[in-house]
Design brief:
The chain is mainly alpha-helical. The protein contains 5 helices and 2 strands; from the N terminus they run αααββαα. The chain has a two-stranded antiparallel sheet. A hairpin with a 6-residue loop joins β1 and β2. α1 packs antiparallel against α2 and α2 packs parallel to α4. The chain is elongated and about 60 Å long. The two termini are about 30 Å apart.
Length: about 140
């Protein structure tokens, strides 16, 4: 039994890395899909994108595994939609509404880009050139 446990333990980090990369790919797919949903108001698409970018940062943290890099990008967790106050002229009631921002959308894309570059620096996205020949056998 001890030998079986040892064999499983040695495989776990690699399997976890693959599962994490698959989760990150799904998050990127969700971001792409939500941006394509023209039936959603732009403000709602941006609000969802903000949450997905935050999710990408949190989910990528085990692969980045570097406090300096994580702290450098920690401000992603503070990103909020742009809000403005609407006043109902009849009742005088004030309500907050989300406003779409092209600048915020650019910032979100820059955050995603930076995180993906950090993941590539750690060789998670593309294997080294000498491993390319055996990639098919590893994926199957």
């Amino acid at each position: 039994m001890t030998e079986e446990y040892g064999a499983q333990e040695s495989k776990a980090p690699f399997n976890m890395a693959i599962a994490t990369l698959m989760s990150l790919r799904q998050t990127l797919d969700h971001i792409r899909n939500i941006e394509a949903r023209i039936d959603f108001p732009p403000e709602e698409r941006q609000r969802i994108k903000i949450e997905l970018v935050k999710r990408f940062y949190v989910d990528s943290s085990p692969l980045l595994y570097d406090v300096t890099i994580l702290k450098k990008h920690e401000s992603i967790l503070d990103i909020e939609p742009i809000m403005f106050i609407c006043i109902d002229t009849r009742t005088g009631k004030r309500t907050g509404r989300i406003k779409y921002s092209f600048e915020l959308n650019k910032k979100l894309d820059q955050c995603l880009l930076a995180l993906q570059v950090e993941l590539q620096k750690k060789k998670f996205y593309m294997p080294p050139r000498d491993d390319m020949g055996s990639i098919g056998t590893k994926m199957g």
